[in-house]
Amino acid sequence: MQFKINKVAIIHAKRAARKYLHNEFRDKLSQAKISVQLCALALLFAIIASLVIILFRLILLWAEQYLLSDTNTISSTLSDWRSYLPLIGAALIWLLSLIGSKRYRRMGIAYVLHRFKLHYGKVPLQSAPGQFSQALIALMTNFSVGKEGPAIHLGAVSASVMAEKFSLPDNSVRIMCASGIAAGIAAIFNAPLAAVLFVFEVIVREYKIHYFFPIMLSAICGAVSSQLAFGNIHEYELINVIRIPLDHYPILLIGGVVLGCVAALFNFSLLNVTAKGQNWPLIYRLLIAAVVTTSIGLVMPQALGSGDFAIHEAISDHPSLLFLIGLLLAKMVATVAAIGFGIPGGIIGPLYGIGALVGAILAIISSLLFPSIAPYVGLYTVIGMTAMMGVCLSAPLAALVALLELTNDASIILPAMFVTIPAYLIAYQGFNTNSIFLKQLDIMGLGYKVAPLNQGLQNKGVRVLMDRRFVIVNDDDELLLEVLKRAEGRPVLVRNSEGQIEMLRLEMQSFEDSTTLSRHPMPGLPDSATLNEAYEALAAKRSGEVYIYRFSPNNPNNQKVVGVISWSNLLQEIRSGQI
Hints:
This is Chloride channel protein. This protein is of the alpha/beta class.
């Protein structure tokens, strides 16, 4: 008998220990502080996101062996079936869109930004198959789109879905989403530091130390995964970059002005096409993009694909100036048609191609006046790539570091910075340019703006502030007054006959020297919510309380109350300056 009693006690002790550790774990994740738990989860989810991106790249590489491998295999003749790949791709993308739900058709970087800002980075799992398959088809069939778009979407889905499976607090789900994005970018480009900066400049748009370490660990994981699968390859390492003398910098300044004008023109054209085609049927938009891409491919096939063909022509030996100008126009038109009419894919690859062509054109024209510039075509090419990405995406630092990692040459830093500044100022102040992603969200009617107060409140979970010293009783009028007297200032909650939670208060009557019991309905929030939801529930009356609950593992329909947050405590937290 004694053995049985001890065994039961041990079982209860183990359960209590697991419950305590689980609650302590969730309490840590609810805080806006760096923690080992947060970093460990980010690393785990980054491994999953990296594997998804590696699979995507492997399938794409396999397909390219049978479709297109380099510019020498491209044929611009009407008899070559590969000339019509964009038409085939548009038809396949449309058929796949019919299979999936209309609700999950939105995809890409702009959509991920919207979900990150307004939905804690919770990207629906149902959108992943469409993004994976349709982006693969778009890249295989030579549309002018990049690989980073699907990488960001798939990385965000992988991490955020896993975070929800683990029932993490919403503030941690957002961090996991950002970490998955960093892993996806690093796995595509083998550029971990650029991935970190891109996430902060474009997605998060604020710097928080408790974001930094999980995102950095995830980027490392993505880069290591890429190196294990494909080797430690720097994609543009073969570009011949030579350090430019200081007396050439006035020419770079003029180049920055030109690049700013080209970037503004590209943004204006792309956003206009996006706005005009927004309400057209999907099949019409896909067909227009396919016809434009096919027509360009028949005349100038080097304008097809992500941007590698254009970069190859820009850095080739003794390129023709007229050919590069024609290729630049063709590449811009192909990219505007593909991205503007909704072909799934990213925009960084095409921007690299356009920037490389602009840089090469500037170098050739300058060398006609100043022959000493001729050896520096490679450097001008990389500078053009940096400026185009930095200006069009409003991410100059991420663009600079990305090209630094992709070329593996630090000599680009100073001239690239020198060119990007005037390019940015010309585009944003002279032509009122803005980030492509933010403008796309405005056109699509998707929100992304969050007030600073709400943004600060979203960084903390309700478990940080909730009062665990409460009393909850069933509805019994004879016992309520006695319970309230013995509560010693603790919140007293009543579960009424309908199962609803009410706050019990003892109120003084103004017309006589007596007190009376009053009940006030309380809104409830899950313990995965953030302080922002509590603020929104109480802000209208600027008083009251919310109760915090969690679902029982054995019975998901059963809510167990675990805490209470009052308006006064929430206001005190806001005024503390830690939000």
